[in-house]
Amino acid sequence: MRTILLLLLTSLQFSFIAIGDKDKFRQDVAVMHGSAQGLPQGAIDKIQLYNQSPLAVATGGTYQWNGSQWTRSKVSSQYNSITQFKKLPEGCGKVLSEVTNNGDTYIGCENGLFIKTRKNRWQQVLPSDENYSWALKNVAALVVDSDGNLWFGSKEGIGKNTNGTWHLFTGKEGLPYNRFTCASAGPKGEVWFGTENGAIRAENNYFYYRSTRRWLPDNRVNDIAVDKDGTAWIATNKGIAQIISKEMTYEEKAAHFTKLTEERHNRMGFICQNHLSEQFNIDSYELAISDNDGQYTAMYGAAQAFRYATTGDKEAKKLADRSFKAVKWLVDITSVPGFPARVIIPVDWHEPVNEQYSKEYNKRHQKNDPFWKDIFPRFPLSEDGKYRWKCDTSSDELAGHYFYYGVYYDLVAETEEEKAAVKQVVADVTDHLIRHSFKLVDYDGKPTRWGSFDPDYFNSIWGWDQRGLNSMMMLSFLNVASHVTEDPKYDEVAKMLRDEEHYHINAMHPKEFFPPENVVPWDNNLGLMSFYGLINYEKDPELLMMYRLSLEYAWLNISKQKNAFWDGLYGALANTFTKKVNEGYFNTDELFKENPLFAQSVIDRYGKSSLDTQYIKETLQRIPLDLIGYEMDNTHRLDVLFDPTPAQEADMGWRVDSYALPIDERGHVRLDRDAFDLHDSEGNGYSEHEGTFYLLPYYFAKYHDLIPQ
């Protein structure tokens, strides 16, 4: 992986697309250096630049970087150890750091920050600003940046002095951590701080936190050096991290993820994550299967469909076509008409899948999960005997299928043959649901665990909490079917569900918000993808108003999670509603006659989107190029507030600005996770995730004019 990322960054220097500054951003990439690159095992104590080449000092000697390897060096370390002053300030304790600024000498001590005056006397510095006044402790970091500002890192926080004026930072101002070990200045005003638990880059009074194996070989930072290009070389107890920041465009990043996905995540046209047999090593990848191959493939196909619609790229059309055929195959392969499988694998797949899901396993699993379905085999044979397909399909799969059916039909299918294929599969799946009283019914003749969309289920103790979401999804499926097939029977069925079973009223509460055990993040994915078909294909103005209210309720609950896909779906649909308002689509005098003020109040309150698109751009820019799943623990951070909701898990919370932590500082990158989870492990270095989690929100946002074209 190290080699791949370096080649990518090198190529970007020479292949930059000149399309305007607004489309360029800086992408951080971490490259790990350890024994495989010539460093000794164990701690790297110091690092410095010698003729702009990094020089690392360890117990076993000095090592120099030659551009591809670390080699033993005879160059002597030029470190300036802390001056042995003849007289120190009284009570200052141990001297921890030292710097000279404009001829003045500063020392950071256990018991304060001191400056040596022109009279050769020590004077204690007591920094203060409008919020704080500090007598400092453990001033372990001192540095002067390229603009001449003095910085310190202490137990109290970070301080910056500009022309005699202090600006002080604690967790309330976004500082992640405060047990400092060192500091180093970069070429463009940025300052890097090392701590006992990660590294921090201060840039324009904002702090980027770089911790855990995504960014560092070890969280204990011993020293940092920053070269003339702004690359930070970070010495830790288990090697060196090289954090590179290079300019990219959205399109270059998309090309990277498309290439990555095609090379390492394509299994017979199905797209999903990989398993890494060697932790953190992407070269050890093995193609994997998941419960949601259909949904993940549909989302990748949708990304390529929006790409095709915005760029006309023939590769995008080819990939979208392939994804549709794969999703359709899931329906065509099963023994039950219109029933979509979760997964298709060759009959000689290397894992003994049916043995893993034996009847004994099902019985054991039901002790902890009483709703687990006892069905065997879980992977029946295909009719031709060449494949196995996984049953017990869920609502997750249907949400992905229907989202993609509509998108593919509208944006990609061009020939009559292509359109006919979409009509056929949509009719097959929808007719299956109608035929079985709005349930997904498996080959055993019984509903799947998570495939019930029927009124009896909603009115039971088992299904009441899914009433809102699944009612809305079922109406969405019928809207997609009506739009694609142009068969009026699907409108008639939807009307029946509204008139007799009040599905549209249920849909006004599109998901559960409490208690926490009922609030699962992937329901946001299901819900918002289903809103796309529900709202885009709805013609009734009263229903559109109701669904617009429902959309707002669904999104507000997650509007601060910095999920670029969820934000994009909300923004696109809210803007669609706004356009209809501006076009005079809603005659408020004719709507909701039992309360003539209601329609206008909806337009007044929700006639415009409340989305701030800066968070879509931030997340797209900060999704890591490295999509390995790492364990990330942010529960120690000073800049987070814990969620006080009763019965909530102890490690849920958000940054002090009330938004989720940035995506490159969280433990996940997938689109269906809870961004407020402060301690997460998405594979712990043994999985690599597909690039859909950038591609779909990017091309979706581009198609809907939510980011620069």
Task: Walk me through this protein's architecture.
InterPro entries: Reg_prop (IPR011110), WD40/YVTN_repeat-like_dom_sf (IPR015943). Residues 1-20 form the signal peptide. Keywords: Signal. It comes from Maribacter aquimaris. This is Two component regulator propeller. The protein has 709 residues and is an alpha+beta fold. Among the domains are: 95-237, YVTN repeat-like/Quinoprotein amine dehydrogenase (Methylamine Dehydrogenase, Chain H), CATH 2.130.10; 265-452, no CATH class. The protein contains 19 helices and 33 strands. Strands 1-20-19-18 form a four-stranded antiparallel beta sheet. A four-stranded antiparallel beta sheet has the order 2-3-4-5, with no helix packed on it. The chain starts with a helix and ends in a 6-residue tail after the last helix. 46% of the residues are buried.
Q: What gap, in angstroms, lies between the N and C termini?
A: 31 Å
Radius of gyration (Å): 29 Å
Overall mean pLDDT score?
94
Percent of residues in beta strands? 15-25%
- Major sheet strand order: 1-20-19-18
Range of helix content = 25-40%
Q: Can you count the beta strands?
A: 33
Q: Shape, please?
A: globular
Category by helix and strand content: alpha+beta
Which parts are unreliable, with pLDDT below 50 for 5 consecutive residues or more? 1-21
Main β-sheet, in a few words? 4 strands, antiparallel
- The tally of helices reads 19
Protein name: Two component regulator propeller
InterPro entries: Reg_prop (IPR011110), WD40/YVTN_repeat-like_dom_sf (IPR015943)
Keywords: Signal
Signal peptide: 1-20
